[in-house]
């Protein structure tokens, strides 16, 4: 029996050459296939936030820029690990987004968007691409106890009043 595959658009630390790429390149279980580079068809705000300079895609279509990134096809086992990494659905939420590959092929994908974001994030600089320059100030989350303090820097309380597309 074959598992269903999901196309995931990554725009930050999971991209090739970035700090967390190993987590998508060699997941603990499951299968991941690189599809190609592209950009979202819709514009979104992408910011870096928290004192760890984590990249966040905000679920406000029509604001910001078309976001550059990479598309991967993952099976359900690999998706579980990605969802755990991104703390889907409480920190990031995996939501649909259309992507145009550099080869001009349009794909339906899913991407991880920050949910329940603080309004002040919309005042930060919007980026169209997460670059090595931005990644230089990224700090990996090494302590689980620190995650809640990072969340508090960018999210409203846990009242499930999510920003949605």
Notes on the structure:
- By secondary structure, this protein is an alpha+beta fold.
- It has four helices and seven strands; from the N terminus they run βαββββαββαα.
- The chain has helices spanning 21-25, 76-86, 132-135, 144-154; strands at 6-10, 32-44, 46-49, 54-57, 65-74, 92-101, 106-114.
- The strands form two sheets. A five-stranded mixed beta barrel has the order 1-5-2-6-7. Strands 3-4 form a two-stranded antiparallel sheet.
- A hairpin with a 4-residue loop joins β6 (92-101) and β7.
- The longest helix has 11 residues, at 76-86.
- It is globular and about 40 Å long.
- The model is unreliable at 159-165 (pLDDT under 50).
- One of its GO terms (cellular component) is cytosol.
- GO terms for molecular function: gamma-glutamylaminecyclotransferase activity.
- Residues 8-118 form the Gamma-glutamylcyclotransferase AIG2-like domain.
- This is Gamma-glutamylcyclotransferase family protein.
The structure class reads: alpha+beta
User: In sequence order, what are the helices and strands, one letter per element?
Assistant: EHEEEEHEEHH
Please count the beta strands (DSSP E, at least 2 residues each): 7
> Can you give the mean pLDDT?
88
The gross shape turns out to be globular
Q: Which value, in Å, is the CA radius of gyration?
A: 15 Å
Order of strands in the sheet with the most strands?
A: 1-5-2-6-7
Q: What is the count of helical runs?
A: 4
What share of the residues does DSSP label as strand, in percent? 25-35%
Distance between the termini: 33 Å
Main sheet: strands, sense, barrel: 5 strands, mixed, barrel
